[in-house]
């Protein structure tokens, strides 16, 4: 079973907690870390924008990406939310097994 680390930013701690709790309750993620006060500088509508955001590190199975993406899109306030998947090629075997146990 392959695991993934998904990255997504949102604009409030409340939204980050909503997304995290939903993913955990639906067994789509084993763990979501929320990192506050991430400074994001990006181009949007031909303007350089600067915001403080909350970064979510979502640990899940690779084959659950589509379901996780759909849940984030339902709950996320952004028109185009960041949802990036990174494959976990190595890690603590017991931790990776735990991810598999906690997800469907």
Residue share in helix? 25-40%
The total tally of domains equals: 1
Strands ordered across the widest β-sheet? 2-3-1-4
Largest sheet: 4 strands, antiparallel
The run of helices and strands is: EHEEHEH
| Content of β-strand | 35-45%
Task: Count every beta strand, where a strand is a DSSP E run of 2 or more residues.
Answer: 4
Can you tell me the residue ranges where pLDDT is under 50 for at least 5 consecutive residues? none
**Per CATH, which architecture?**
2-Layer Sandwich
SS summary, helix count: 3
Distance between the termini: 12 Å
Keywords:
4-stranded antiparallel beta sheet; 104 residues; Alpha-Beta Plaits; single chain; alpha+beta; 3 helices; 4 strands
What does this structure look like?
By secondary structure, the chain is of the alpha+beta class. A hairpin with a 2-residue loop joins β2 and β3. It starts with a strand and ends with a helix. The protein has one domain: Alpha-Beta Plaits, CATH 3.30.70.120. It has a four-stranded antiparallel sheet with strand order 2-3-1-4. It is elongated. It has three helices and four strands. The mean pLDDT is 96. The longest helix has 13 residues.
């Amino acid at each position: 079973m392959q695991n993934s680390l998904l990255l997504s930013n949102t604009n409030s701690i409340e939204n980050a907690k909503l997304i995290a709790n939903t993913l955990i309750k639906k067994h789509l993620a084993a763990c979501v870390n929320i990192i506050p006060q991430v400074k994001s500088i990006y181009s949007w509508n031909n303007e350089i924008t600067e915001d403080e955001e909350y970064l979510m590190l979502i640990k899940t199975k690779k084959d659950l990406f589509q379901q996780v993406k759909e849940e984030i899109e339902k709950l996320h306030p952004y028109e185009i939310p960041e949802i990036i998947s990174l494959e976990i090629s190595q890690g603590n075997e017991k931790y990776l097994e735990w991810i598999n146990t906690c997800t469907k």
